[in-house]
Amino acid sequence: MAYDEVLADRISERLAPRGVTAKKMFAGLTFLWQGNAMANLYDEGLMVRVGGDGMDDALARPGARPLLFRGKPQNGWVLLDEETLDDAALDSWLEWAWECTAELPPKKPGAKTKK
C-alpha cells in the first residue's frame, strides 16, 4: 500500500477526535464512521464522499476529479490531487465527507455491503 503516510497522519489527527477509525482496505487506508467509508487514501490520492447531490459543486473545486472504478464514474465520490490539500482545503474536504457520512445509518458489524 503506497499511500502518503504524512497525509494519512494529517487526516487521522483531524478525524480521530470524532471517533473515526482507519482501516487498511481497498488498496489503501480507509477512514470509517460507524462502519461507513468517508474517505480512502491510496496511491492515486485521496477519495472523499461528497454525496450524489454534491458532485457538481465538488468537481468545480480545485484538485477534484471524478473517481473512476473500472472505468466508470462513482457517483458521490471524488478523487483529490494531494498537491491541493493544504490545511484549509483538507479541513474543508474532510468536513464535507463527515457531513455526508454522518447522514448514513450505521452499519452492523459483519454486515455485507451492496454490490
Can you tell me about this structure?
The protein is an alpha+beta fold. About 30% of the residues lie in helices and about 35% in strands. It contains three helices and six strands, in the order αββββαββα. A hairpin with a 2-residue loop joins strand 2 and strand 3 (about 35-40). The longest helix has 16 residues, at about 85-100. The two termini are about 25 Å apart. The mean pLDDT is about 90.
Describe, in short, the structure shown.
The protein has 115 residues and is of the alpha+beta class.
| Helical amount | 25-40%
Strand order of the largest sheet: 1-2-3-4-6-5
Oligomer: single chain
Output the radius of gyration: 13 Å
| Strand proportion | 25-35%
Helix-strand blueprint:
Blueprint: H1 5-15, E1 21-25, E2 28-33, E3 36-42, E4 45-49, H2 55-59, E5 64-69, E6 72-80, H3 87-102
Antiparallel strand pairs: 1-2, 2-3, 3-4, 4-6, 5-6
Pfam families: TfoX_N
InterPro entries: TfoX_N (IPR007076)
Protein name: TfoX N-terminal domain-containing protein
Give descriptors for this structure.
single chain; 115 residues; alpha+beta; 6-stranded antiparallel sheet; 28% helix; globular
